[in-house]
Specification:
By secondary structure, the protein is an alpha+beta fold. It folds into two domains: 60 residues, Winged helix-like DNA-binding domain superfamily/Winged helix DNA-binding domain (Arc Repressor Mutant, subunit A, Orthogonal Bundle), CATH 1.10.10; 189 residues, Beta-Lactamase (2-Layer Sandwich). 45% of the residues lie in helices and 19% in strands. The protein is built from nine helices and nine strands. A hairpin with a 5-residue loop joins strand 2 and strand 3. The longest helix has 31 residues. The radius of gyration is 22 Å and the shape is elongated.
Length: 273
């Protein structure tokens, strides 16, 4: 199902002025070594002090900005630091995964994707384009519903069932196709199977005519930090092709996980002695 991007008549820069001001403030504070006072921020950005104060108050409350009570200066907060660390980790992950993804793509002639989990969506952070056109958005940064994709299910399976249930509390399960999971109990049952077998599958659950298999990527703690998938037009996804794609993907997932420092079966056996 196509994703809607923007409303009728919308143009870049229109709407969400508070968001734009918040991002400009973050950019300004990132360039300051010692923090800035309210007046300095407002004057530097050409903004009214009243609205600047309101935006800063919200940013402090959410942890993106900190206010020094002694100097009355504003500095970047812990959330900004966490976002920066997440970006560094994502870039490190992509750098390690991209050569492996390209190799799988070359062997299968299919599109390979790398994604991380954000709430109840998976976000593309790496792509190796295959030679086949697919009815999917393939841009970096694209978000897809985790409950309706192989990547999403591989990522969600890395969470405890209680955490999955918490994340989807009050969530409206959209049926993108007749095969889409439409309830939390069905999702939890599917994720349990994914954990047991070590991989996930998309049975035309987001887009009719496209199937995929996906595997988790683990870090040095053994935690699932990403997932990698191979997408194939359904018309060519026969048993032999599925078996080949899954074998390539499992090997690739293990290789990238090893590059991320994930413990191997031999490591776990040694640790258990």
């Amino acid at each position: 199902m196509p994703r809607v991007r923007g409303g009728a008549g919308s143009t870049p820069g229109e709407g969400a002025p508070a968001v734009r001001r918040a991002l400009r403030i973050l950019d300004l504070l990132a360039q300051s070594d010692h923090g800035l006072r309210l007046t300095d921020i407002a004057e530097s950005l050409g903004l009214p002090k009243s609205s600047t104060s309101l935006v800063l108050g919200a940013m402090v409350e959410l942890g993106w900005v900190e206010r020094d009570p002694q100097t009355q200066s504003y500095l970047l907060g812990i959330r900004a630091w966490q976002a920066g660390q997440a970006y560094v980790r994502a870039r490190s992950l992509v750098e390690r995964a991209q050569p492996v993804m390209d190799r799988v793509r070359d062997r299968l002639k299919e599109t390979v994707r790398l994604a991380v989990l954000d709430g109840h969506e998976n976000v593309y952070i790496g792509i190796s384009e295959g030679g086949q056109a697919l009815a999917l958005d393939t841009r970096i940064g694209t978000r897809l519903p985790a409950h309706a994709t192989g990547l999403g299910k591989a990522l969600l399976a890395g969470l405890p069932p209680d955490e999955v249930r918490r994340r989807f509390e009050g969530f409206e399960f959209v049926a993108y196709t007749r095969n889409t999971i439409t309830g939390i109990d069905q999702l939890l049952e599917t994720l349990d199977q994914v954990r047991r077998q070590g991989w996930a599958e998309d049975h035309e659950e987001y887009v009719l005519g496209v199937r995929c298999v996906a595997v988790p990527i683990r870090d040095h703690h053994g935690d699932v930090v990403a997932a990698m998938s191979v997408s194939v037009p359904t018309i060519r996804f026969n048993r032999a092709h599925r078996r080949m794609a899954l074998a390539e993907l499992l090997a690739a997932g293990a290789e990238v996980s090893a590059r991320m420092g994930a413990p191997t079966a031999a490591d776990e056996e040694t640790a258990g002695r």
